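Margin note: ligand = nicotinamide-adenine-dinucleotide.
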Amino acid sequence: MTHKLLILPGDGIGPEIVAEALKVLQVLKHEFDFGFEAEQGLIGGAAFDVDGHPLPRATLDLARDCDAVLLGAVGGPQYEACPRELRPERGLLGLRYELGLFANLRPALLYPRLAAASALKPELVAGLDLMIVRELTGGIYFGEPRGIRTHNSGEREGVNTLSYRESEIERVARSAFDIAMCRDKRLCSVDKANVLEVSELWREVVQRVAADYPQVQLTHMYVDNAAMQLVRAPTQFDVLLTDNMFGDILSDAAAQLTGSIGMLPSASLNAERKGLYEPVHGSAPDIAGKGLANPLATILSVAMMLRYSLNEPELAVRLQTAVGRVLDQGLRTPDIYARGDQRASTAQMGDAVVLALREGQRE
Ligand code: NAD
Ligand code: IPM
Ligand code: MN
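Resulting structure:
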């Protein structure tokens, strides 16, 4: 079986971290019998520079035609002056929307050896293993009307619209319940139902879906409290269900609990389980091109791809185990470095994962 992959390196550190993920994919192909063909495409600023658009038609066609997409990151300060619709981020949002990738899975897992790198005390993050399920194709990111309008007085007003249809809430809620069923069966739905009508409907629909999942313990939490609980006692959570914007914010916070945003992978799935796989972090322009970026979030995104879109759960476990082994060896990019660790560049980290995969195979 040959899987068709689309590789979109993007901007900033994107190409560096994707290069390490490709090393891993090559080893899986040549030494683990994982059949795939990969095409490369342009997205974000890299696409804008060549085609004048952050999501060229050719990229979208390739994305529609493949089994899974691996993406680095998009964006950078040089594109801030671009017209809004042509900014790199719009390319990524367009891809998510066009492929219908409504369920965004962002697991925050603490590798035990990284406890010292966490922003929280080790005893608060010991055993941390939570999954954020973020709605990804609706809410305030896509709501209409939107724009900046000018009043007669000359004063300008920025407008974005938060709206969700019941069907949009229901499908992502089902994804979250399904995931909870495979985990500890605890789901916390995050909203702002004390203020927002959209959240009131969100809560009602989630409760309705819960009737189909009697084994899952459902709770609700306001987003401000959820942010606080995440940094107070994060291990209380199993699965968190959020709308598009709350999930964006909470997942960066959750990332830091695991040591670094350079550790957090993601999967964005549609109804057919086709997926876009990308690290949660951005293009990190401040460290791009210096060999400082942590490639593990991207490599772990490959593991999620193997699991969720390509039906290769054993390879996914092998890859995750290899990452754990590299961390056990004490190898660290600067974002997760603590005194006594061994410093590694982006490429050295990728090479170490490849080596650990091979060692794992021999055992
Ligand atoms: P960022 O995630 O790019 O960077 C935040 C901080 O984390 C920076 O200090 C950066 O150096 C560090 N960091 C990020 N990834 C790292 C890694 N792998 N290893 C080590 N350190 C890492 O967020 P930002 O600075 O707010 O945004 C920069 C650009 O990226 C913006 O244009 C933004 O729109 C874009 N962005 C893109 C995505 C995406 O493509 N999915 C996600 C978030 C932000
Ligand atoms: C993310 C990013 C994106 C988002 C941006 C780059 C559009 O922050 O994937 O978390 O807000 O969804
Ligand atoms: Mn984000």
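The radius of gyration is 20 Å.
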